[in-house]
Amino acid sequence: QVQFVESGGGAVQAGGSLRLSCTASGFTFRLHAMSWYRQDSGQERELVATIERYHGETNYAGSVKGRFTISRDDAKNMVFLQMNSLKPEDTAVYYCKRTYFSRDSWGQGTQVTVSS
Q: How far is 18 from 38, CA to CA, in rounded Å?
């Protein structure tokens, strides 16, 4: 069974940093691209960052480029999101998932709240 468990969220002031972690299970992690998504209340879920398999090419939403860094540890089946220079508009629940498998179930997510 494919599962994703996110952690590391919290409440920070604008300009602060957080590092999110996601542990995946139920599939061969190193063979799959992974993404972070976020959803604020009343908003659609947004793709934040993607890291490809093998060589680890990364892509970011324009709103986070230069502030967020996605990385992965294939030995631990984990993907990370380092978030720096946080802004109030980054407030959301953050989720990880396989990039190209839309039918995967979502995890519980981890709440990030940035105050001004």
A: 14
DSSP character at residue 89: G
Half-sphere exposure of 100 (CA within 13 A, CB side): 7
CA 35 to chain centre: 6
pLDDT (average), residues 9-18: 98
Per DSSP, 30 falls in state: G
What are the pLDDT digits (tens) for 52-101? Answer: 998 889 999 999 999 999 999 999 999 999 999 999 999 999 999 999 99
80-112: string of b/e by CB count within 10 Å (b at 16+)?
A: bbebeebeeebbbbbbbbbbeeeebeebebbeb
Residues 6+ apart with CB under 8 A from 45: 37, 38, 39, 95
Dihedral sign, Cα of residue 5, residue 34, residue 21, residue 95: negative
